[in-house]
Amino acid sequence: MRSQALSFLGLSALVLSTPAADSPKPVAAENKAPEVKITAPLEKTGFQWNSLLTYSIDVADPEDGKSEFSEITANEAFLWVAYLPDAAQTEKYLDVVAKIDNAPVRKMSASNCFTCHTAATKLIGPSFDLIARRYEHTPDAVESLAKKVLGGASGTWGAVPMPPHPDLTIEQAKEMVAWILKNNLDPNRSFVVGLEGAFRSREKPQQESSDWTCVLTATYTDHGAKDAPETAVQGAHSVVLKHKK
Ligand code: HEC
Predict the structure, then answer these.
(1) Ligand 1 within 6 A of 165 CB?
(2) Ligand 1 closest atom vs CA 145
């Protein structure tokens, strides 16, 4: 016990002693958080099931720039959509979504996945919702689908093939597929990529409630301070919509 504690202390002393006390201290990289705002729809707007909603997100980041001057890369902004049967759950959900780990989604967006896929509707490829449902009970689906993402795929969903992604590693592909399979099974959760666009609200749910709300949360993760991507921070903003008949 004692010797462990000592070696731990020794180690931290070593870490603390670099850089040497007489060398100039490196200037801590500073990065300011992005300001994210959903400009449409507005808070408390009414929504209906299975109908088109248009949205728009404004991003202003001290380092990356402003979306109004086209300085923000559109596919680095996401709109998370959640349907809650009871408005009393809103606060708890806002806590959860603020901490969402969307790193795999950002990687998918940085690759080209969203030119062919969306969460909820078919584009050139099948929706991630359908993929998650199809492989829900397939053992080793992460492994086998990750290999298909790397090597390309055809014949399972139709005539259009998915091109290979030789630029990805198998670990990166597995991280993406695991995220898709885990996060696309809940009909009350969805997401859209881009600073503006439109999406279709979900089908009328089975569960009766006079209190259905839809929470939209926009997130944008900045690029961090120059030469210090590890200082990246996420900005977020939510609006709550009310279901109306
Ligand atoms: C050029 C369009 C295109 C791009 C880009 C693309 N896909 Fe696909 N994807 C498809 C098509 C088309 C299919 C259906 C292929 C089939 O029928 O076997 C598919 C199928 C899939 C499947 C299911 C495979 C199966 O056998 O059921 C997964 C998982 C998937 N894509 C993930 C991704 C990921 C992750 C990315 C980004 C790294 C990506 N796709 C990029 C078009 C694309």
Answers:
(1) yes
(2) 29
CB-ligand 1 contact for 177 (6 Å cutoff): yes
Q: What is the pLDDT of residue 14?
A: 39
Ligand 1 binding pocket includes 157 (Cβ within 6 Å): yes
pTM: 0.87
User: By residue range, what is the domain housing residue 48?
Assistant: 31-243
Give me the number of domains the chain comprises: 1
Contact 63, 31 (CB under 8 A): yes
83 phi and psi angles, rounded to 5 deg: -110, 125
In a domain, 138, yes or no: yes
25 part of a folded domain:
no
Question: Which atom of ligand 1 lies nearest, measured to the CA of 160?
Answer: 12
Query: Ligand 1, from 162, 165, 167, 174: best to mutate by most atoms within 8 Å of Cβ?
Result: 162
Q: How far apart are CA 36 and CA 29, in angstroms?
A: 22
Average pLDDT of adjacent 10-residue blocks, the chain of 245 residues = 40 41 64 96 95 97 95 96 94 88 93 96 95 97 98 96 97 97 94 96 92 96 88 94 91
Q: Does residue 11 lie in a domain region?
A: no
97 within domain boundaries: yes
Find the CATH number of the domain harbouring 141.
1.10.760.10
CB atoms within 10 A of CB 193: 21
